[in-house]
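User: I've been going back and forth on whether these two constructs are worth ordering. Before I decide, could you fold them both?

Assistant: Sure. I'll take them in the order you sent them. The first construct and its structure tokens:
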Amino acid sequence: MGRVGDFRLRLPGHAHGTALAAILLLDATPFELSLLALAELIPGFAVGLVAGVWVDRLPRRPILVGTDLGRAMLLALIPLASLLDVLTLELLYVVGALTSVLTAFFDVAYQSYLPALVRREELVEGNSKLAASGSVAEVAAFGSGGWLVQWLTAPLAILIDAATFLVSALFVARIRAPEPLPARSEKREAVWRDALEGLQLVWGNATLRALAICNFTWYVGLRIVGTVFVLYLTRDLGLDPGVQGMIFAVGGVSSLLGAVVAGPATRRWGVGPTLVGALVVATIGQLFVPLAGVATATTVVVAFLVGQQLTLDPAMTAFDITQISLRQAMTADAFQGRVNATMRFIEFGALLVGAVAGGLLGEAIGLRPTILIGAMGGLLGVLWLMRSPVRGAREVVPTVDEGTAPVTEVP
């Protein structure tokens, strides 16, 4: 994954490839995989709020194109280093860190770009289409990626992934819809003041605050699982990269279903019930992963993992489409970057906590118990959302008056 429309903060395609490279070529331990995960999270987390400020100050399409090109060049360093026999974990850490910075700018820019191109009432449809395209990319990336690792080795599979960023940059550059120029102030505030304003906007709005806390609790558990997931599949369950790729490809297909049903679900049941129901289904899906460790037959193991992909992926796709559309609709265009960056900052803070916890727990108690703890942790996000004002919200797209307030409340 990792393309336009990538809503899910799960392992993107290049992260899966670097994790496999670390495991298969460099014999990485759970703690070293945790360090790799941190290298792919900390820099993006550190610059996240700043990214929001500059996305609000600059045209967004050039940011999208530039960050795609930069990530393509960085990922190309891995197969080059492998070819020269100088590939090390340290290089993977550096590439992961720099890619993380560029991804922070990309993610904030694309979430802020769509509201400038479509009407507020079209946001769910627009985000659904972006998610659908991301799901198709996931099928191609993961479905072929695992076999490419076996046939071509992990570094060359990463090279192919780098090429997809070039394709992404090409398509974004071809967008012809005019983008409104950022509003210019005669007296521009310091970057840190603008960043702080984004935090205040999110925390001061009951709906955004509830979503932020829910996402934090959910993503801690999600990243605990994600930190040791590839190692668990490879070492504990004995699945080769090709089988892993086909399992992940199922998630791409099922994510497409989530993109299709998000709009009808919010129209029929409302935004609150859709968000709560999606998290409940996603939590159930996560529990299939530790259950796979109980099975002895490979076919049963694969069936459990496919079950996870058929439940977690569509549920999280529907959840993300709904919450991102709601957030975009509530926010005036001049504040899109900072509000989206603040939410991303909170989510990536959760991922950092989960990455550290996943590595330490994986070393201390083993991979399967660690995954079980992470899966159960997702229930906290469900419980928080159930107790929040979002639960009773019906409208998906509240109206924003650009001239009165940077954000509005859900009716």
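The second construct, handled the same way:
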Amino acid sequence: MPVSLVCVALLGTLTIALGFGVSMARARERRVYGYSEDPDNSLYQWVRAHGNSTEYVPVLMVLIYVLGQMPVAGWVVWCMVLVTFCRYLAALGLVLPKTMRKPNPLRFIGSLGTYVFGLALCAALLLQIL
């Protein structure tokens, strides 16, 4: 089973699970639409985690899928795994704390890893083209 397809499946699962989390938070708050932009509000945290995921996951899925169709170096496969792991860390860093008012290590590491490993995947694809 190719690592790239596992990563694509995990990223898709993350985004759908976060959407479900938004629905559950709406049910708890009895809100059909909208949310309070209060960093202490769990619905807001779920909405931001889902929104953040939908901003990054589609591009990462395409990069991982396309690179997975080519013979690539081992470091590229590691970048696929690590960027997937970092997206989970970023999501956990948004929904686990009681508030989003303060920075936390999960969110920081997840975000930084998304940038570093995501850009590495972009570079890997460019290197494949050249």
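Notes on the second construct follow. The mean pLDDT is 95. The helical segments are 3-29, 42-68, 74-95, 105-129.
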